[in-house]
Structures are given as structure tokens and as C-alpha cells.
Amino acid sequence: MSIRFLTAQLAQQIDEELMNAVGAFSLDQLMELAGLACAQALSTVYSKERYPKVLVCCGPGNQGGDGLVAARHLGMFGYKPTVYMPKPGSKDIYQRLQKQCINMDIPIIPPSASIEELTRALRSSNVILDAIFGFSFKPPVRAPFDDALEFISASRLPIVSVDIPSGWDVEFGNEEGVGLNPDVLISLTAPKPGVQHFRGRHFLGGRFVPKAMQEKFKLNLPEYPGFDQIVELPRNYRM
Residue positions in the annotated binding site? Predict the structure, then answer.
């Protein structure tokens, strides 16, 4: 039986159930687990010996929170992350995650940074972690994210995208042609329909969905090996 692909509506429903009285998870817990899985996926493909400098690009929503958690874990793993926020989040949880990165001396490039500063950061990076947009994104890409995606694409650096590549529609993929084209994708909980035509290395993260919920939503998730937080899916995985 193949893994169930999640529409934006179904992904939102599962998140809500994970955080209600039945699932009993907090948002902090889910971000921590998702961010850890993202950091592990990046480190699996791009070793710190060859790719030590990671530019972690964070949007203002929960996806950006996952990115901030991943940046902290990457720092713990021995990488040298830098966080870039085209537009920082305003929620308390986002502010706390940002403070945790600051406490680890992880540089943060603010939205007010000049084009020259962002260009220097890209030139000094070895790999990008894309955590800008989540599964609720709908085209078109608006300012300031349009410029950010253009700069990231123009860098020609390898990209690891979280859940769905930024700029892609969760249902229809990169039909607009303005989204990032990552080399690695880490789908959270389960893949989304829009990534069916993704051609790079594809990992699944989200080793937190209870068996009862997996069965309720007929997710058909694969077994995670050992104590890993990720499992690699076959290339060109389809619905």
C-alpha cells in the first residue's frame, strides 16, 4: 500500500488533531521534532566536512519555526548555520526560537539587510535550507519573498526544502514556474500532492504521528529505521 499524499486541508486537520486534547502535543513539541528531522536530513546528504556553512531561510509562519529549530540543531551537529528572514514571525514561539539561535551565536540576517549583505551570505554558504513557505501557501509569490526566492535560485547552491519547495502550490506543484528547485526534500508527516514530480532525494520526517492517527487517516507510513527521525523514499515517488 502506498503512502497517502496529504492535501493542505487534510494536513491542517492532522495538525489540529495532533494538538487537541486527543493528540496532546504542543506546537513547541511538533516544531522541535520537525526541525530535528530537517537537520538530520540535511546532514545525511551534506556532510559538515564538505558543506559546513548552511544558510537557513525562514518564513514568518510555522515553517519558519521549523527552520529556526533546524538551525539550532545544525549548530549542535557542528555546522555553521546563518539564519536569513525575509520577513520574521511575530508570534511568541517564533521570538523564543530566534532567541535560542542568538544564544548559540548563530548569525541572523534581518529583512533590513542590503542586497550586498544577502549576496555575501549566499556566496559564503555551501548549502541552503529552505523553510520559507509551508503547506498553506498559495501563489502568487509576493514581496519580499519574490526577491528572496530569486536570489536563492540564482545562487546555484544545493537546496534542501522543508515539506514543500517554497513557491510551489501544495496541490499543483511548480506550475507557476517561480518556485525553488531543491535537490533534497523533507516531507513532514506525509508527502503533499504537489511534490509528485519532484526528482531529487526525498525524505519523510514526522516520527511523532501516533499509530491510531496513522490508521484513522490511512497514512500507510513506512517504518523509520533504528532511532532515525527520517526515512528516505524511493525517487520519483508518486501517489
Answer: 62-66, 130, 134-140, 163, 166
Q: pLDDT digit string (tens) for 199-226?
A: 999 999 999 999 999 999 999 999 999 9
Residue 5: predicted pLDDT: 94
Annotated binding site for K(+): 63, 130, 166
pTM (2 decimals)?
Answer: 0.96
* Helix and strand numbers, DSSP H then E, in the chain: 7, 8
Percentage above 70 pLDDT, the chain: 98
State pLDDT tens for residues 86-130.
998 999 999 999 999 999 999 999 888 877 888 899 999 999 999
**CA–CA gap between residue 14 and residue 214 (Å, rounded):** 10
Give the annotated binding-site residues for (6S)-NADPHX: 62-66, 134-140, 163
Give how far Cα 18 sits from Cα of 27, 136, 216, 228, Å.
Answer: 9, 17, 12, 21
Residue ranges and CATH numbers for the domains of the chain are 8-18+26-226 (3.40.50.10260)
**What is the Cα–Cα distance from 181 to 159, expressed in whole angstroms?**
8
Q: Are strands 184-188 and 108-109 parallel, antiparallel or unpaired?
A: unpaired
